[in-house]
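@channel sequence for tomorrow's demo:
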Amino acid sequence: MNPTIKRLVLLGLLVMAVWPTEARGGPWRKAQANVGQAVRQACSISRNKTLSPWKRTGLALRAACRSVGLRRKAPPAVLLYQGAFDPVHKGHLTNIKSSVNGVQGVGKVFVVPTSDHPGKKPVPFKHRVAMMRKALASTALPASVHATVVNDRRLAQLSLKGFDDLTAMIHARYPGSPVYIMTGSDAYLKAAASGLVDKALRWGYRYAVTPRAGYPLPERLPVGVEVMPLAGGEVSSSKIRRDLGAGVLPIRALGRPVARHIADNGLYGYWAHKELRCAQ
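structure tokens (generated this afternoon):
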């Protein structure tokens, strides 16, 4: 067994042994729920070969202590937002702001435009990264929240390996921080039906779900799944692409920085040198 995992198991047994029996209510159940997160983070950190063995062990133990509540200061929560973002629009930014306000203690947001998307042919990866960076630069987030766009194709792969590499990077930088997976209710229901939600919750991840029209959520949700408040109407990426192909630049839905990038680079069939009608 990996030495890091051995130390983590011993730490968990120690906590179970010293925790008072009468206190095994809410706090005890919370500690039990966080064991999966501690194990997941230890596994992710142990796979990060860029760190020395001693560094990996120290980070894993630090993450485990924070997960079971042995540190006084709570670590900042991390939001993980993956998607095609084809193109980036105001709806995506609204989801980010809604989750930042809805999840307690958010300190970091990782936005990951997927480098590959089965069944779709999005615009090149570099343009979607550039659009998201420009959109976030013009978005007002709390001063304590820092947003980063992942510009690494290996970490942006829409696969289990890509997700493992991505979360290993997050756990190495923010050991012990709870990781919330941001998603819409449509994607959440598909993941729940396939069993991915239960698996992610067992590994210690949490969900920040934004409701979408036509995809109602069940009344009772598992522990670790939080519903975010929906501010404003929905924006359709497919409708934006149709408008752009028809020569209409929907500035209100895209925002001016993203609309300018699309026009300057002639994306989605829209060319800057043509005098085209703008839908305000």
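heads up for whoever presents: The first strand starts at residue 77 and ends at 83.
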